[in-house]
Every structure is written in structure tokens, then in C-alpha cells.
Amino acid sequence: MKVYDVVIVGGGPAGLSAGLYAGRARLNALLIEKDKDGGQIVITSEIENYPGCLPEESGSTLVERMSKQVEKFGIERTSDCIESVDFSGDIKVLKGKGKEYHTKTVIIATGAYPKPIGCPGEKELIGKGVSYCATCDGNFFEDFEIFVVGGGDTAVEEALYLTKFGRKVTIIHRRDELRAAKSIQEKAFKNPKVDFMWDSVVKEIKGDGMVQSMSVENVKTGEVTEIVADEEDGTFGIFGFIGYLPQSKCFEGSLDMEYGYIRTNENMETNVPGVFAAGDIRIKSLRQVVTACADGAIAAVMAEKYIENEGGN
Ligand code: NAP
After folding, report:
1. 218 and 161, same structural domain?
2. Given the CA of residue 184, which atom of ligand 1 is nearest to it?
3. Does the annotation count 137 as an active-site position?
4. CATH (domain of 222)
5. Has residue 71 got a pLDDT over 60?
6. Are strands 244-246 and 112-114 parallel, antiparallel or unpaired?
7. Is residue 200 in contact with ligand 1, taking CB distance under 6 Å?
8. Mean of all residue pLDDT scores within the chain
9. Domain shared by 164 and 210, yes or no
10. Burial per residue of 245-270, b for 16 or more beta-carbon CB atoms within 10 angstroms, e otherwise
11. What is the pLDDT of residues 203-237, one digit of tens each?
12. d(CA 95, ligand 1 centre) in Å
């Protein structure tokens, strides 16, 4: 039975950074990714907040270079989807589709994905007007109109943040009252740049290369409003904040979590010795490429230390 030093689950920036550090430390490492490398950032058309990124860097070009850099250090790679785990022994077991992996340490870097608004046109226009990250994409809408979908804490807080960029920010919410905390609501009601479309859902997003219009339905009256980009602007922003889906189902019951996010300390250690988590899957305050990479590096170094010092067989 092959026992790895470390198995990294997830090939986004956190997993790739962990792979880079594990490779440099000459650990016997395996990186498992279920799909393509990159996670969420491959759907980001322009990245300008990762230190040292090239001008007009896209998520996919950045990930391509990250993947190549990892390859250089020779860690093993495989494509599989982990379905269950057994972290009870010194040797941890991860069960994929028809294959088991045995390892002294695990780094979980499976990420969290924004829930899609779920209407026609949305997927095609991601990165072309549709976004799920105000910190990443807000400044592309400097002085444009912006629409935010959702009524929870995230939607309202991000709408307030987006008022720094957009000339007007309209919150589209499916009910007539917000779910967000009262203190956050108060700020939004006071902000002259924030407007609301109550009892409303986005039915379709349209555009040729960029978002140009969308249909919004009033769920009480059935009336459909067509929102068309101002002629001079040609486009507007639509930010979806209707919740996130942390990719942690297979770790439920094995690790300490909150709302599906894994709890770690600053060394990325979970409550199970030898199991680390890195990137967006952690409970943390800023989910960005730069913080995911930092987490991945720390997790790999701590995994190496665990193997050396703390008796990883
Ligand atoms: P959330 O609280 O689950 O809110 C999701 C919002 O999206 C709700 O208003 C919901 O509407 C709406 N929604 C859900 N599905 C929808 C759909 N298919 N179409 C249209 N609207 C839809 O998610 P969140 O705001 O991301 O927050 C997640 C957790 O993190 C919460 O516990 C929140 O308190 C916490 N959080 C805290 C802070 C803070 O304390 N500063 C900041 C951010 C997040 P309904 O209201 O009608 O269900």
C-alpha cells in the first residue's frame, strides 16, 4: 500500500501553492483535482490584485503559470473526486471514485463556490458583467450602474462597498425585507447611492460579449421590467450574492466546521492532527487569491513539520 507524505485535495491557488511548497520540500505528495486546475479564478477574466500579476492578467493565465511552476517540482497529480474520508488513524484515508489514497497528512483546498443566480445568460456572461466578487471586480464598474442580487449580509455589505465604484447600486431582492443584520440594513437605507427592487428576481441576462440588458420579474405582480444599459455605458454590472457552497460535504462529521467552512488555527491546522485546510474552504475574513496562496504555503510547511516532529509514521 502506497502511503503519501501529503495528499492535497483541490487544484486552485491554495492547493497549487501547497503543491509548490510540498514539492520543494521533496515530500512524497499527490495533488487531486476533480476538474481543471484553478477553481474559481479561472472564471475571472481580469486579475489586478494579485501581486506581480501581468498587465491584463486573466484567472486562467495566472493558473496556467502556477500549474507549470508546480510541475517543475515534480509532485504527482491525479484527477478524481473525493467522496468520503477516514481521518481516525495515523494514516488518513481518502476515498475517490473507485480508488483509495493513503497519506500521513492531508491538505484540504477544495474552495467555496458562489451560488449562481440561476437564470439563462448568467453563465455565458460571467466575467463579462456578471460577477460574484466585489473586491475582485468592483473597480471595473467605476461610474457604471451596478445591480446586486440577494438580501443577506453579504449582498448588502458588498452593495455598500460597490457604491465606491458604481454611480448607483440597486439591490434586487426576492422579498420585501432584507435578511441582513439590522445594523447593515440601516447603513444601506441611509446611503443615497443604494436603491432597491423589492419582490424581484432576475429572469434572464442578455448581452453580446458583455451584459447589455436583463429581465427582472416582480414575483407579486408578475410584471417584467427590462433593464437596458445606458447607451453611453453600453453595459452594467450584476453581482450575485445569494450564498456560497463550500465544497466540504465529504468532510462532514470528520472535522470541526461552521456552515460547511472548516475551522483552522493560523497554522492551517484543523481539529484533527495531520489534517490541514487552506484557502476559501476555511473560516476566514478575506477570500482572495493572495490569501489562498499564503494559506497553501503555510499548510504545506506545517505538514512537513508534522511529519518530521509529530510522529506522522
Ligand atoms: P445568506 O444569509 O444565506 O443570504 C442569502 C440571500 O440571498 C438571502 O437574502 C436570500 O433571500 C437570497 N437568495 C437565496 N437564494 C436565492 C435565489 N435563488 N434567488 C434570489 N435570492 C436568493 O447568505 P450570505 O449573505 O452570503 O451570508 C452567509 C452567512 O455569512 C450568514 O450567516 C451571514 O450572517 C454571514 N455573514 C456575516 C457577515 C457579517 O457579520 N458582517 C457578512 C457576510 C456574511 P431570502 O432572504 O428571501 O432567503
Report:
1. yes
2. 41
3. yes
4. 3.50.50.60
5. yes
6. antiparallel
7. no
8. 94
9. yes
10. ebbbebbeebbebeebbbebeeebbb
11. 999 999 999 999 999 999 999 999 999 999 999 99
12. 32
